[in-house]
Design brief:
Elements: H1 3-12, E1 17-23, E2 26-27, E3 32-45, E4 51-63, H2 76-89, E5 97-104, E6 107-120, E7 123-129, H3 136-145
Parallel strand pairs: 1-7, 4-5
Antiparallel strand pairs: 1-2, 3-4, 5-6, 6-7
Helix pairs in contact: 1-2
């Protein structure tokens, strides 16, 4: 999901509580805060000597230990106000992919992408998912030659 799409959802549903599901049936606790918004530029070279460039917006979610008894989730308007403040200080890229960085004592730190969004009742449920790593070079080898890359140490891939 692009940053502008996510912000559009918040604008469309300002009174809805924003819940983040980080694993099936598990949501970030109501005591979460948006503690950091990062404008990331990725300028990379893969193992097949292919280059790539893209931008990401990474939003850090953190559960405050001092507010463990909190039962109300942040509403979309408050989240949108935070993003507007950030954008006024450091311009966010609307076409950048948005990801959410999160961890808790039972879940490792991960950058999660938006897999799905559901609007129901009073909630805007943002379902997050882990993106598995893959070898980009094997994909480009197949696209250029039509053959599967073996990704052995001797190949032009990995």
């Amino acid at each position: 999901m692009k940053t502008q799409e996510f912000l559009g959802l918040l604008e469309t549903h300002p009174t809805k509580s924003v819940l983040f599901e980080y694993a099936k049936g598990k949501t970030v606790a109501p005591n979460y805060h948006i503690t950091e918004v990062k404008n990331i530029i990725v300028d990379s070279v893969d193992c097949g000597a292919g280059t790539d460039f893209w931008r990401e917006t990474v939003v850090q979610l953190w559960e405050s230990p001092k507010e463990k008894n909190r039962t109300e989730y942040m509403n979309a308007q408050k989240a949108l106000d935070i993003f507007k403040r950030v954008n006024g200080m450091k311009r966010m890229q609307p076409d950048a992919e948005i990801r959410f960085e999160y961890s808790n004592p039972n879940f490792h730190t991960a950058q999660l992408f938006v897999d799905d969004v559901t609007v129901n009742g009073e909630h805007l449920l943002v379902r997050l998912a882990v993106e598995k790593t893959d070898c980009k070079a094997k994909i480009s080898v197949k696209a250029n030659t039509g053959e599967e890359a073996c990704c052995s140490p001797e190949s032009a891939c990995c």
